[in-house]
Amino acid sequence: MAAHAADRWEHERPWAAPTQPAVISQVIPTPDGIPWHSLAITAAGKLVGQRQASSTGATPSVAIIAEDGHTTPFPATASSDLANPIELTADDAGHIWILDAGVRSEGPWSLTEVDGRSETPLGHWPLPPETRVPGSRFAALVIHGNFAYLADEGHAALAVLNLHDGKGKRFIEDDPSVRGRQAMVVAGKPVLDANGHAIARDVSLLALTHDGKWLFYQPPCGPLYRLSTELLTDPSYGPVEQLDGIVKWRETPTLGGMTTSANDTLYMTDVASAQLLSFSSARIPLWLLRDPRLAQAAVPTVTPDGHTLYVPVAGGPSILKIALPPQ
Predict the structure, then answer these.
(1) What CATH number is given to the structural domain containing 137?
(2) Are 125 and 131 a contacting pair, CB within 8 Å?
(3) How much is the CA Rg of the chain, to the nearest whole Å?
(4) Which range marks the domain in which residue 294 is found?
(5) Which residue, of 44, 80, 125, 179, is most buried by count of CB atoms within 10 Å of its CB?
(6) Tens of pLDDT along 144-197?
């Protein structure tokens, strides 16, 4: 199956201009200068964001963000469970899930669920030992039903946590699909380390279809892969079926983040060429918007009606509110 997908990539359509482009309708400022990393929409329709905690602790690392950039701590009630939030996402009920790395990113790793209307914590799930190995560093989280899917960038693998019984498992560890095998490119230039060597990061981007049946994943430098979630959640399937189920879905440029809409259109922030990309469930590749600020974009979120995309950008820093064309 993977071989057939690789052959198909040789004939992929190029990214095409849309009939109707996306438009930046508003720039939401970030007055304190600490950029947002990931965003999500609550059940009440509020925008919530996650970012690095300030050194003074004066500004919240997870907060509701108003249209004028003003922030309100989230959850609304204090929670000692949140030590070092590094990613957040919304589930299909509009509850917000926060991935926490623990003190100084040394653990214990955990998930916290927050009600999307009352803004109060609903539950706390430590990541069990079977989801982790020495050097694990989780970088992405998506939720559907009773399962949480995570990307381990520190020791390349996918992990799944059963939210019903608290048990977890690792999958496709060190498979080529989760390894960064291409150099990252930002604003047209390769990203280099202090010694002048090109940097290639492992899997750190995830997205789910609306029905939770398909998981998309990739290292930032691409390509994009698709895998049936049934292969990860049904214990009757083994490693052979899981590896056979991996499909290279699309070659992509270096991405800062990606998300899916309710109609399963993938929206991707292309930091290599500073543009917003979309890839529909019909496999139509479009670039929707070009703007130099998108070269510093992170993980976006789309409103449930599919009309608006919010993109956090480090340059400024700010959040771009983007009006999307009809899909």
Answers:
(1) 2.120.10.30
(2) no
(3) 19
(4) 2-323
(5) 125
(6) 999 999 999 999 999 999 999 999 999 999 999 999 999 999 999 999 999 999
